[in-house]
Amino acid sequence: MPEDFDRRSSLEELEGLRWPVPPADTTPMVRNVYELRRRPVATLEPHELARLIGQDVGLPWLLPLAVDILRDTAPGRAEGGRFDDDLLYAVISRRPEVWAAAPGPAHALRETVAVLTDVSRYVRQDIDAFLSALPGDDA
What is the mean pLDDT of each run of 10 residues along the chain (139 residues)? Predict the structure, then answer.
């Protein structure tokens, strides 16, 4: 996965692929995904990253960015700081083969989730499933 890229570029530019205009009868969520692909990656908010990642869109570029955001905000969660559980869920729920292709972000995410202590049992189950699917996990 490319971790070093121009974040001023959109996913369309990074992928070199412009999606056609979505059909008129498409859902608002699909329209939103199409719109988000046209925005510079650096302007995407965590909830927008969660939407794209949850749809498996732009993973080579968005997963490293999302993991950076989660890593930077995880320590402050215990003090009531801003932490996006939707982004966490979108990231940890990707298929194991996605993480096999992204060992750097996978390692960083493993370290990030290790500091998360105050999570619901449902989020803990998702974290445990993510960790158990990682290659070479000793947990």
Answer: 79 93 92 96 96 96 94 75 80 92 92 84 89 70
Residues 6+ apart with CB under 8 A from 65: 7, 41, 44, 49
DSSP classification of residue 108: H
Tokens of 8: 């001023």
Spatial distance between the Cα atoms of 38 and 41, rounded to a whole number of angstroms: 9
Cα-trace Rg, the chain: 15
> How many CB atoms within 10 Å of residue 58?
22
Give the bridge partners for 40, in sequence order: 10
Tokens for 55, please give them.
């749809």
Which residues on neighbouring strands pair with residue 10, listed in sequence order?
A: 40
In 10 A of CB 59, how many CB atoms?
A: 20
